[in-house]
Design goal:
The protein is α/β, with parallel strands linked by helices. It has three domains: about 200 residues, Rossmann fold (3-Layer(aba) Sandwich), CATH 3.40.50.300; about 200 residues, Rossmann fold (3-Layer(aba) Sandwich); about 30 residues, no CATH class. Helices cover about 40% and strands about 15% of the residues. The protein has a seven-stranded parallel beta sheet, sandwiched between helices. The relative contact order is 0.11. Bound molecules: adenosine monophosphate. The site of adenosine monophosphate has 11 residues, from helix 3.
Length: about 450
């Protein structure tokens, strides 16, 4: 389908789209339209900028018949006030020629009593942040039993911000029979769990926009046994301040982000962002990295995706991402605007399978580097690593091939030479999203269990 006419949407929507000046649907719009319209539960993996909002709004608006019933039939949840406002704006633009009642609710400046009054006047669609929405549901002014469709936008951010309880509370107020539509930019363990718990046979579509041809990015990898050896390697590499003048380092968890900041030798040149930091702190960190005050920015996947910073020389995956798409998103931060960029992946033995999934997805073996001699292999383990210890000697002093196959080191070297098994992207996604291959490897899971 290459035009909006192919969607066979109603005239009023066609006209609104024409007014907006959209010529053809974006890939996520093409992928989602008929599935969402068909009524299946849906998961869209797409970043901001892909046209994801219109992707779920179009089929919802196509399906929504005029009604003067007082209670809303569509609930859209978003993590931030800004996103709520944007979504409401897009709905208003799309419904220029349709009679439809929509309201955006969020905390802070938005007065709850004004919101209650607006709700009492009757609504078709309500868009809100979870906490405020739940407060309104508790007040009995907002009745959620007539909701037919639930959309959760930017669900990765929502869960990273710790809104899981609010979501569960809201789910309790919703009718069981409803269509669930989830959109997320990144896949995370939390998103996976939410899908498992609340969706019924969802159809998943992934749209990746790195926007950067991977040919601009030179990739390399190091097999490194543990956190502290990885930190030693970074201290060695990042000593070259000219070569590494603007470095974005991705870590899997907030704990690793803070721990890495303490361990690196460059504390005064390093900023950290993750969801437990205050918004002010995050903005300041990003600004310092952007204007060059900080040379190094340490970030988690979810929180980093909102930032758009030019001229990043190197993207370092300190932890190998569990979901291979996240690696593509990560490295797409460098090599922009025709500039060349560098991407370095550090992987421990436990992370080897994850690295191989990334290579299958790209159909490319990431060139392998030997650990420089100057880098000390540490025996110190983090509390998380102690849960499942790895013996560094096993990796670096070649041992006889074990039952499981070649040793980590040998396998890595071999892998860099051999062509990776070709699998279709869809097959890979199916394998990946069906069930985690080794649930214990999911770092967030490990962290949660420990609590
Ligand atoms: P989103 O990914 O939903 O944040 O949308 C990003 C921007 O793309 C918004 O400003 C939309 O108005 C715009 N947009 C959405 N769909 C299309 C389309 N089919 N053609 C051109 N622009 C679009």
């Amino acid at each position: 389908m290459n035009t909006f006419e192919d969607f066979k949407i109603k005239k009023q929507l066609q006209n609104a789209i024409a007014d907006l000046g959209f010529e053809k649907p974006t890939p996520i719009q093409t992928e989602s339209y008929s599935t969402i319209l068909g009524g299946s539960d849906f998961v869209g993996i797409a970043q901001t900028g892909t046209g994801k909002t219109i992707a779920y709004l179009l089929p919802i608006l196509q399906d929504l018949k005029f009604s003067d019933q007082p209670h809303p039939r569509v609930l859209i949840l978003a993590p931030t006030r800004e996103l709520v406002i944007q979504i409401v704006e897009q709905i208003e633009k799309l419904t220029t020629y349709i009679s439809l009642r929509v309201l955006g609710v969020y905390g802070g400046t938005n007065n709850i009593n004004t919101q209650k009054k607006a709700i009492a006047e009757g609504l078709d669609i309500i868009v809100g942040t979870p906490r405020r929405l739940y407060d309104l549901a508790l007040s009995n002014v907002l009745r959620l039993k007539s909701i037919k469709k639930l959309v959760i936008d930017e669900v990765d951010i929502m869960l990273d911000f710790g809104y899981k309880t609010q979501l569960n509370n809201i789910f309790d107020h919703l009718p069981e029979k409803r269509q669930n539509i989830l959109f997320s930019a990144t896949m995370t363990t939390y998103v996976d769990e939410l899908i498992d718990d609340f969706l019924v046979n969802p159809i998943k579509k992934t749209i990746s926009i790195s926007g950067t041809p991977l040919t601009n990015i030179s990739q390399e990898s190091y097999a490194v046994p543990n956190f502290y050896t990885k930190a030693n390697l970074l201290n060695h590499l990042l000593g070259d301040k000219e070569k590494y003048s603007k470095v974005l380092i991705f870590v899997a968890t907030k704990t690793n982000a803070d721990r890495l900041l303490e361990t690196l030798n460059f504390e005064s040149e390093t900023s950290v962002i993750h969801s437990s930091k205050e918004q002010n702190h995050r903005s300041k960190s990003i600004e310092m990295f952007e204007n060059g005050t900080s040379r190094i920015l340490i970030a988690t996947d979810v929180i980093a995706r909102g930032i758009d910073i030019e001229k990043i020389t190197t993207v370092i995956s300190f932890d190998t991402p569990f979901y291979p798409e996240n690696y593509i998103h990560r490295i797409g931060r460098t090599g922009r605007a025709e500039q060349s960029g560098k991407a370095i992946l550090l992987y421990s033995e436990k992370e080897t399978a994850l690295k191989e999934s990334i290579e299958s997805l790209m159909n490319y073996s990431i060139p392998f580097n030997e650990l420089p001699e100057e880098v000390q292999v540490s025996n110190q383990l983090t509390p998380e690593e102690k849960d499942k210890p790895i013996d560094p000697d096993e990796m670096y002093h070649k041992k006889p091939v074990t039952e499981a196959g070649a040793s980590f080191h040998e396998k890595s070297a071999k892998n860099s030479k051999e062509k990776v098994e070709r699998k279709s992207y869809q097959t890979l996604l199916k394998e990946r999203y069906k069930k985690p291959i080794r649930r214990g490897d999911k770092i967030q899971n490990m962290k949660k269990k420990k609590k």
